[in-house]
Amino acid sequence: MSSNRRPSGKRRGAEVRAACWLARHPGFLATPTTIATSVAELGPTTTGGIAAGILAAGVAWRRIDPDSFHHHAAPRLRSVRRRWTRYHGYAWRRNLDACDLTVQDRRTGAWLTPRVVRVFSPTPSIDVIKVKMVRGQSVRTWQEQQEALATALGAEVLAIERTKARLITITAVYGNPFADIVPAVEIPDEPDEVDLTAIELGDTEHGRPWTEPLLGTHWLISGATGSGKGGLLWNPLRAMGPMIREGLVRIWAIDPKGGMETEQGRPLFYRYATSADVEYDEDGDEIRNPMLELIAAFRDAMKQRQEELRRESKRKVTISRDTPLDVLMIDELAMLTALGGRSLTVQVNRLLAEIMTQGRAAGYSVVAYLQEPTKDIVPVRDLFTVRICLRTTSASYVDMVLGDNARLRGALADEIPVTEDYAGIGYRVAEKSRVPIRVRAGHVTDDDIAELVATCTPDNGTGGVVVPFAA
Known about the structure:
This is Cell division protein FtsK. By secondary structure, the protein is of the alpha/beta class. 36% of the residues lie in helices and 20% in strands.
């Protein structure tokens, strides 16, 4: 007798279905059972006191340490609430019905609704929903109804991807938490107000200051044209302004776009080079590239400081006027690492790899900006320790910048609208949890840059005049 019997078409009994549902949702039965047992054993007063104590502890936790609360407790509480209010029962079934995503069993006539396996809400505006499809559906079935489903759920943008057989992941982003433009960060008054391990760049979607460590790290900032990368160039300089003025931080700036973006802040820079400074012979061949020379000089200065630290038996630099934090900022890295000549590309990649693998303890950091983060554009991509992804033109770029499966976890940088209202909005990933966080860089105007230059231009020993770079 063959063991491959065809289904009879009959449904399981109601009690069996109920038992399976309870097995998938043990908390639904365990919670009232625990409460009832506590009331029976300890009495209603004691049980009420315990419940009140737990609630008070949660409120106190949120008030005393909001960062820890939002990291550990808030996502779990939010996930439970949204699962039972948005993605369960009548509300979920009604939305799928409206989008033709329920299937009728041709044998029994019963309507089958895709089941939500898990809901995770890492931030107030992002839900990641894992759904088990019913037979007869494919990921394409859902993707064809993607816009309709986004409308039904009330989501601003929606992404649907296949996770494994019969399982898909829906990432829904609700609303724009940055209703207003985030202003440029304030310039501190004194150097001791600057924390190089927490440079303010703007706001997070939690409404808290967005900070990133610069001392001992290297930043990679990716974003398409008009995505707001300028805010991530000038806000760090404003946040470090007093230290730049006092010579505790030195900025080595390279602008391969001819200086259009950076020329206004030129007095702030310790060394500066642009593509306009490249020299050519009569045949149009490049004979001198000050941008490459600046990177080489940055590497040589790092080597010299390493030798000084070695002689003093120090493993890590202490930031001072004699040993400042040196920061190499490259406005469009691709023009050096991929779009230049082969010789230039090889040399730049070699120098950057050397700096980023050895510069941490010596106080040398790299901050690079680019539009396409592919390996052929940026071979040293994996050496950047802090990565920020603004609006991109390709879904694949998100994972290239933020790491594997970052888009599945909610970083829909490719879905950010192409309007000025969304400039500066992007994603970064929490170091420990790898959860994407939506952020927005402060909007920096020409007046903000002028203020920075007027108040924080360093005195380089020539009455405030920047010493031009020379090989």
